[in-house]
DNA sequence: TATGAATGAGATTTCATTCAT
DNA sequence: AATGAATGAAATCTCATTCAT
């Protein structure tokens, strides 16, 4: 039930995954405990549904990454794609953060998260592997870039580190492009 | 009391911050509830003490970053420093992860974490700012590199993504060096 | 919920306010802790509700005090009213005693008690002020009589001082009437 | 140990008997838990010692009540004695209040208190019995007057009901004298 | 389908008391 | 005599989950 999922996102945003109570979600959704358990078997179950949505969106995004060339156009395309990532983070930020919180000490979400990361990175690797210098392991470099991408978005968009969205995107594009083609930023 | 702090690290590692019960910590430390509350006013309070330790260690690490030159020696020095970061992550991993878990939805730890990130990044920026191309904002580039560093360590050392520690360090050094001097990796 | 309030009265009676445990109340009411906290936020909260009831009953009683004349009929009417006070004390004794116990060192109940005393005494003063000799401050004399009334009921009805209810009422009526009209007792 | 007894009075004053912790008393007395238990077996025990002091002082006071005559001099002597009672209440107020609090729901203190009340009232009865009209039971009238005396002092000296000490004494003397000799107040 | 009162297991926290020094 | 760290029993309170309506 959409109402409950949306309330879930909202409550996870303000209270975090662990501190979120079924009662909070139910109250925000203006429905009852009984109804909650009609649709979900518990908080974890509702979260799984939200996580699924994020996972799908992320995978679609990974697949939309263009083959990036060494020139300015390639860099611009990369920047645009990073912008899409930021858009996605804007939309699903609370879920992503809750996920990070939930997966620590929770077997299932940890496994799900690792799977998702692996799939995303695999697709990402695929797109950039042609561009990398021979001696570099593309999968690992890709993982590092994904790490930077994810965490920088968290820092800037969730943690209110004082950096503008545009500058964040430009910087990420610069560092990524440099590591792919060895050129200097911008 | 050291015994309780150590037990805290251990319990946060296995159960995560939220699922950790005072009872777990107390049992592991082979002491009593009364003793726990003699030294700390609650779980949060104990965690604060641990966080302080990590913060101090991280700050010391940031200050140990050498001025990195464009040549191979510079790259090697950078790799060595990243290795120290990984060592620190090994030692304090449970606390860092617990922190990540705790700071979401907990104002205080969120603020503390942002402060720590800011200080670390500031020192980091200081060390690399001379090396960056003019048009790049050093603070933001530094933040991106710190994001990569932190998150990659988490992926590899905590999440059991199947990457060797040596390769992680080498890759991180490569990407960082490339973004500083525009050279290709290695 | 009535069941819990009644159990509260009963437990306060046998154990006193401070020694009363939520668990006692819950067990006597044959319900659960959860239910208790559904209706009251703690023991204090339940007590507040009971205190409200006593306060209302006392105020109604004060307002029922007839204008007492100097003759035998006036004295009889006064005695009857004192009888009603004793009835009320019988009914709410446990709460009144618990209040006495609770208000010492508890700001809120102290304040509530003083308010109630003031209102009761004010109404009482109103009823007797016409009867007092000029030089006497009616409010203070009224307060003294209320003090006697309250404490004597406590001595006789709660403390099991060996005095019959009838004699207590007769004596109180005598002293009060004497102080109002300067006649000797009875 | 005097230091502990004094600290006890002080703590009972601010926190009441039940809320008083051994820790509070020990801290205020600038000594240790161990020392407390060296001199008293528990909080109750310390309180018993204080109660003993109050009991002795009260009994001495009762015995100092002069034989009160029907004239102005008798009334003045009565007023002076009531002043002494107020002095005693000033000094031992916290203990008296704590006693009231403690005796509800505590067998031992209730019994002690009733004994003390009985002894005090007996002596009081002795002193006034000659003055009362034949039909009045002196013991009961005395009890009523003692009730008034005690409670009025509590109202005025502890509860901060807005009445001056002088007026309280005058009013009590008036009501008492009136009930003894049937004269009007003052 | 929907409700929400009732439940009770389990976590947190307090504080009187002991005992080795 | 004096200390105060350590204890643990006992109380409070929360919240996920159920179930009769």
What does this protein structure show overall?
Four copies of one chain form a homotetramer. The first copy, chain A, has 186 residues and is mainly α. Chain A folds into two domains: 1-40, Arc Repressor Mutant, subunit A (Orthogonal Bundle); 43-181, Tetracycline Repressor, domain 2 (Orthogonal Bundle). Chain A has eight helices and no strands. In chain A, helix 6 (107-128) packs across helix 7 (138-158). The mean pLDDT of chain A is 88. At the A-B interface, helix 1, helix 5, helix 6, helix 7 and helix 8 of A face helix 5, helix 6, helix 7 and helix 8 of B. The structure holds a DNA duplex (21 and 21 nucleotides).
How would you summarize this macromolecular structure in one to three sentences?
By secondary structure, chain A is mainly α. Chain A has helices at 2-19, 22-28, 33-39, 43-63, 72-103, 107-128, 138-158, 165-181.
Lay out the secondary structure.
Four copies of one chain form a homotetramer.
Chain A: H1 2-19, H2 22-28, H3 33-39, H4 43-63, H5 72-103, H6 107-128, H7 138-158, H8 165-181
Chain B binds a DNA duplex (21 and 21 nucleotides) through helix 3.
Contiguous uncertain segments of 5+ residues of chain A = none
Shape descriptor of chain A reads: elongated
Query: What is the CA-atom radius of gyration of chain A, in angstroms?
Result: 18 Å
Portion in beta strands of chain A:
under 5%
CATH-derived topology of the largest domain in chain A: Tetracycline Repressor, domain 2
| Range of helix content of chain A | over 70%
Number of strands of chain A: 0
List the chains of the largest interface with their residue counts: A-B, 56 and 54 residues
Derived from helix and strand composition plus strand pairing, the structural class of chain A reads mainly alpha
Pattern of helices and strands of chain A: HHHHHHHH
Q: How far apart are the first and last residues' alpha carbons of chain A, in Å?
A: 46 Å
* Assembly state (oligomeric): homotetramer
CATH superfamily of the largest domain in chain A: Tetracycline Repressor, domain 2
Overall pLDDT confidence of chain A: 88
Any idea of the CATH class of the largest domain in chain A? Mainly Alpha
Number of domains of chain A: 2
Outline the biggest β-sheet of chain A. none
Q: How does CATH name the architecture of the largest domain in chain A?
A: Orthogonal Bundle
Give me the number of helical elements of chain A: 8
């Amino acid at each position: 039930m959409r109402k409950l999922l949306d309330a879930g996102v909202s409550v996870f945003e303000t209270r975090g995954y662990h501190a979120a109570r079924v009662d909070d979600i139910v109250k925000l959704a203006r429905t009852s405990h009984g109804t909650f358990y009609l649709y979900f078997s518990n908080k974890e179950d509702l979260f799984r549904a939200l996580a699924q949505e994020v996972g799908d969106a992320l995978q679609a995004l990974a697949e939309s990454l263009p083959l990036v060339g060494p020139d300015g156009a390639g860099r611009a395309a990369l920047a645009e794609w990073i912008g899409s990532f930021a858009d996605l983070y804007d939309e699903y930020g609370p879920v992503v953060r809750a996920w990070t919180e939930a997966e620590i000490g929770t077997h299932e979400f940890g496994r799900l998260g690792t799977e998702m990361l692996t799939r995303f990175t695999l697709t990402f690797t695929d797109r950039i592997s042609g561009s990398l210098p021979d001696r570099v392991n593309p999968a690992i470099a890709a993982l590092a870039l994904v790490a930077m991408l994810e965490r920088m978005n968290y820092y800037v968009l969730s943690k209110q580190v004082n950096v503008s969205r545009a500058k964040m995107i430009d910087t990420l594009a610069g560092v990524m492009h440099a590591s792919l083609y060895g050129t200097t930023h911008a």
